[in-house]
Amino acid sequence: MIRRDFLKSCGLIATGVALSDPIAKAETVLNISGSNASLLDDEKSDIHIRLRSQRPHNDKPITVVIIGAGNRGRVYASYAKTYNDNIKVVGVSDIIESRCNRIADQHGVPQENRFGHYREVFERPKMADAVVIATPDDRHYEPCIKALELGYDVLLEKPVAPTEKECSDILKLSEKSGRIVAISHVLRYSPYFIALKAVVDSGAIGDIVSVQHQEPIEFAHMAHSYVRGNWRCEKDTTPIILAKSCHDLDIIRWIVGKPCKSISAYGSLHLFKKENMPEGAPARCTDGCPHQGTCPFSAIDIYVRDKRHLGVFDLKNRKDDNEIMEKLRTNWYGRCVYQCDNDQPDHYVANMEFEGGVTSSFTMDAFTPHGGRRTRIMGTKGYIEGNSKTFTLWDFKTRTSKTWRKDVADFDEYKDSGHGGGDFGLVRDFVEAVAAQDPTKLSSSIRDSIESHIMGFAAEKSRKSNKKVDVKA
């Protein structure tokens, strides 16, 4: 899709707007439907991007099978619950029966369309327009290949696959079969990043010279997901640069708008290993750890006291401390963070050079009190700095600044959508793409998504070899 068509699809070009005015180009837009329209004229913002409705435009609903009924599967299924005139869940698969039945019950899925292993889905003739694949990282490849072979369109949770070859295989089969594959690079679909991209494309800061981008994981999230949890081992899932940060590589590539030529990366597992274990710490936080009062990574504090990250526990009552404690005594999440089988780096730096000499630095940091991406963009005529909720544009010539600030939680259609509204925005565009059989309705093509994954694989090669690596998309 050419730049002008992209801006038009986002509602960033409208009749009566002077295209010679770069700020004006970023101030237009699509109206959101419903009673919240008046809220869009928010005087707090100097840069106005009206939000698009989360409801898709399709004449009849598309049908989907949810494969993987964990957290991400539940998110995508919840979109179908909200917009059931546009998308219907007709099958669910998960090896944990309670998870499968939870989603299936919500959508009235008949018993014969409730599956255990995903292979059971593909033993049937094609039964829906599309599948949503939200299985663990190392179980994306096989169901995606089988879905494409049977003629399904696919919404595939990121990362695409654990290896560069598997990513390439999915790309080739998608293009050969003519099927649509949407990768869940949900940040592209959030109003914040849509607005940021629009302002950059408007020319308001001139030509991009350099980008600094940070992903703060947040200390408790790191302990939960990448030390104790499902993504703790690279060999069992994917490297953390892909498991956590393929979103960020995609956003950097999208903003720069040029191919990455080379990358150099550094990082290691600094803290979460046995040699750093406090003296006398037991294998589990529930076994009377003498450091309970001082350890910031205490499982009892994170899960029982703060009630965070409980979605993985399949609890009957999230407020029942005894039930949570029982889970911590038996599952991965009760373990001491210094005595796990983890190998993922807890800090990561990648430096990139793009065509035209544009440079970018990316850092992923476990040791922060907050999440939310931070981005700085340096251009020949201006500068942008943002924190995933607001960003400010400084104009070098006029010595003035303009700010974009919208809390999407204020809008009914956005407040229940994760990743700043991007989760539902992705599904909306996927529904429209499938209904029209038009992949250009997606912000990111499968080839674009694979390109940012190749950047991630190159970063890992660089980190492990301590050498700069050329990126060959």
Structural class: alpha/beta
Number of strands: 15
| The CATH C-level class name of the largest domain | Alpha Beta
What is the CATH superfamily label of the largest domain? Dihydrodipicolinate Reductase, domain 2
Spans of at least 5 consecutive residues with low confidence: 1-43
The first-to-last residue Cα distance is 19 Å
Average pLDDT number: 88
Q: Could you tell me the radius of gyration in angstroms? A: 23 Å
Quaternary structure classification: single chain
CATH fold topology of the largest domain: Dihydrodipicolinate Reductase, domain 2
SSE string: HHEHEHEHEHEHEHEHHHEHHEEEEEEHHE
- Give me the side-by-side strand order of the main sheet: 14-13-12-11-7-10-9-8-15
Measured as a percent range, the helix fraction is: 25-40%
Strand count, sense and barrel status of the largest sheet are: 9 strands, mixed
Provide an overview of this structure.
- The chain has 473 residues and is α/β, with parallel strands linked by helices.
- It folds into three domains: 62-179, Rossmann fold (3-Layer(aba) Sandwich); 187-272 and 342-470, 2-Layer Sandwich (Dihydrodipicolinate Reductase, domain 2); 274-334, no CATH class.
- The protein is built from 15 helices and 15 strands.
- It has helices spanning 3-9, 22-25, 71-82, 97-107, 119-122, 141-150, 164-177, 191-201, 219-228, 240-243, 246-256, 299-305, 321-330, 422-436, 446-465; strands spanning 62-67, 87-93, 114-115, 130-133, 153-156, 181-183, 208-216, 260-268, 347-354, 359-365, 374-379, 382-386, 390-395, 400-405, 469-470.
- The strands form two sheets. A nine-stranded mixed beta sheet has the order 14-13-12-11-7-10-9-8-15. Strands 3-2-1-4-5-6 form a six-stranded parallel beta sheet, with helices on both faces.
- Strand 11 (374-379) and strand 12 (382-386) form a beta hairpin.
- The protein is globular, with a radius of gyration of 23 Å.
- The two termini are 19 Å apart.
